[in-house]
Amino acid sequence: MIVFSEVFLSELVGLPVVDRDDKRIGIVRDVLAQFGDQYPRVTGVVVKRPKDLPLGVVVIGDIDVIGRRMVLTRNPAEHIAIASLRQNDVLMARDIMDKQIVDVDGARVVRVNDVKLARMEGEVRVIAADVGILGMLRRLKLLPVVRVVADFFRIPIPDRQIGWNYVELLEDETKRAAISIPHSRIGELHPSDVAHIMSQLASEKRQEIFAALPDRTAAESLHELEPKIQAYLLTTISSKKALALLDRMPVDEIADVLGDIPFDRSEELLRLMKPRKVAAVRKLLQHSDESAGGLMTTDCIKFPEMMTADQAIQKLRELAPSTETIYYLYVVDEEERLRGILSLRNLIISAPDTLIRDIMKKHLITVTADVSQRKVADVISKYNLLAIPVVDAENRIQGIITVDDVMDYILPPISRRKREMLG
């Protein structure tokens, strides 16, 4: 069994490789790793040999000790078969260090400054990525000096390591290493976290991750991104994929996204969508982005005032799965004019034969489609509402605006800046 505890790759590179007779074979240039397991397995040490010989690999089975001062082989040099590097070999220093990775636990994109190796179940494994200043200082051989100064002035140096089980590789540009990128792990994150990750990446990498996401996650993440990124992503995927995503989005979010992409692409997608949803989207697109009409969704539940509580509950079971929000239920007369608002609580606790007009709240707080977003935010904040109906001059309900739609106006300035930084 190999004698080894743990070491950083930057500490290993440059160490002499000697045989058991103390004969020098070369110096460590890199380590070879096999990906596929949760913690990649180190399969060999890449050695720079003398006399202009090409780089070679001493396989892990020929190594007896990996220490902080040298790498020692099991057999004499003449009995060690030095393997050649292959095109698809993954070298940790060459192919991983300085590359971007996703910390799927912290939902952030970071750059690898160093790699930690340790023995695990009798094998040498890659166990962590160092993404902090310690890793950079270690590579520059400045860590001992900086530690002395930091200790003298009592300045803590943060240690930022990410366990490899929380790492997902992003960059594969070297073409020399066939590194698998299991984007399914990113797809398991919250859509806001996925959007945060994609907002930090280059365009081509965003496209790669976005295309690999499940439709539901992709749809929910799309609306969390900045308009320019939304437009880019929606123009890089097939019409079939775009329609699958739009079909999973509420009509107000569809209108927001389509309003930011080129007109021709927007019209193409609208022609392929279901007629009923197209009508609702086109209605929303008529309103200014800065108005209540631009914020609202037409996806709300309306009940006739002569319906009983039991009938309303039965109808709600049919409608709720496809409705964006059911904070409130809206009661209308025969001409679709808004007469009252009904809370789920009152509906559930009422006797089955009670008419909903008798339990609805008749004091209405509404806005019209042409009022500003600021006004909408002020009203929602003032009355502590979860949603507010948008009505026309005849008091016919046109749609609703939910509290999350006006979050940027309700949040205090500092919180708003933090939200913007998160994408």
Describe this structure in words.
There is one protein chain. The chain has about 425 residues and is α+β, with helices and mostly antiparallel strands. The protein folds into three domains: about 5-135, SH3 type barrels (Roll); about 185-285, MgtE N-terminal fold; about 300-410, CBS-domain (Roll). The chain contains 19 helices and 21 strands. The strands form five sheets. Strands 2, 3, 4, 5, 6, 7, 8 and 9 form an eight-stranded mixed beta sheet that branches. The model is unreliable at about 175-180 and about 410-423 (pLDDT under 50).
Shape label? elongated
Write down the oligomeric state: single chain
What is the CATH top level name of the largest domain? Mainly Beta
> Strand portion, in percent?
15-25%
Q: What's the main sheet like? A: 8 strands, mixed
Radius of gyration: 30 Å
Gist of the model:
Helix content is 35%, strand content 23%. It is α+β, with helices and mostly antiparallel strands and 423 residues long.
Topology (SSEs and partners):
Blueprint: E1 6-8, H1 9-12, E2 16-18, E3 24-34, E4 41-48, E5 56-59, E6 63-66, E7 71-73, E8 83-84, E9 90-91, H2 92-96, E10 100-103, E11 108-111, E12 114-120, E13 123-130, H3 133-139, H4 143-152, E14 161-163, E15 167-169, H5 184-187, H6 191-199, H7 203-212, H8 215-222, H9 227-236, H10 239-247, H11 251-258, H12 263-272, H13 275-285, H14 292-295, E16 302-304, H15 309-319, E17 328-332, E18 338-343, H16 344-349, E19 367-368, H17 373-383, E20 387-391, E21 397-402, H18 407-410, H19 413-421
